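Pilot study result, target chain (144 residues):
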Amino acid sequence: MPSERAGVVSSSVSRESSSDPRTNEPCVLIIDDDPQVAHVTRFILKRSGFHAITASTPEEGLHLAIELRPDVIICDGALPRISGPEVLRILKSTPETATTPVIIMSGHEGLDYQGLFTFLKKPFDAATLIGATRNALAMRMQPA
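Predicted structure:
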C-alpha cells in the first residue's frame, strides 16, 4: 500500500500527470523498499512543494507509475525481485511512462541505467535531491 495517494484514481484516467488537483503540486513517485529512506525522501519533497507518493515494492511502483502518471519517478537502484535497472527498462518501454524522467538513487554505481535522467549516489543531501527533482520536472515541462 502506498503511504499516500492522490485519492482514488482509476487506471482508465487519461491525463498528462497526477499533480495534486487541490494544490497543483507536481507529483513525484518514490519507489524504495527501505521505509526510512522512503519516508525521509517523501518528507523532503513535500516540504519543497511536491506531492510525493511512495511505493514499497517494485511491483507496486510500476503499477502506480502507470496508474497515476507522476511527473517524476525516483527509484531505488537495489530493489528486491525486480532490480532498479529492470524497473527503469520497464518504465521506458511502457507508453504511459516512457517520457517520465526517472532518477535512480543507490549506493551502487556502475550498473547499466539506460534511459536514466540522473543518478544520485547514496547518501545524498536534501539540496541534491531537490535540485535533481526540479531539474527532472523542468525537463518534463519542456515542449517536445
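One observation from the pilot: The chain has a mean pLDDT of 84. A full batch analysis is planned for the follow-on phase.
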